[in-house]
């Protein structure tokens, strides 16, 4: 009888602990998915799983800058103000992993920026 009373009292609390509806993730457009692949192969170790920063700063805003500025960040390690970014920032002049050996294309850089825009 006591066990039943405890269950009756606790039942509303368990309902509060459950999410109201399951969370669903909107699929990314193909270009942003390609950018996500680049991000997770090259950037995630320093900038974090959700681009929130870690060893390196949050780079969500990098998705909003003009392509030429983004190229300067990626190839030369220079910020919007022209100052050098952290010395540990790789210079991707030889390409993104796993395709090292050629300079990243504008399309790859745009895809990476598209992915950065999708991260919440």
TrEMBL record:
The family database entries (Gene3D superfamilies) matched by this protein are listed as: Cytochrome c-like domain
State the UniProt keywords alphabetically: Heme, Iron, Metal-binding, Signal
Region forming the signal peptide = 1-17
One short Pfam name that applies is Cytochrom_C
Please state every residue range assigned to the domain named Cytochrome c: 30-120
Tell me the protein's name: C-type cytochrome
């Amino acid at each position: 009888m006591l066990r039943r009373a405890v269950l009756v009292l606790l039942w509303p609390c368990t309902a509060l602990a459950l999410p109201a509806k399951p969370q669903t993730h909107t699929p990314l457009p193909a270009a942003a998915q390609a950018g996500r692949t680049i991000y997770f192969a090259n950037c995630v170790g320093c900038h974090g799983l959700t681009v929130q920063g870690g060893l390196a700063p949050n780079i969500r805003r990098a998705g909003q800058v003009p392509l030429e500025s983004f190229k300067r960040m990626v190839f030369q390690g220079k910020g919007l103000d022209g100052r050098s970014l952290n010395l540990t920032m790789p210079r991707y002049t030889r390409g993104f992993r796993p395709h090292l050996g050629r300079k990243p294309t504008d399309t790859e850089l745009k895809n990476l920026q598209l992915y950065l825009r999708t991260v919440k």
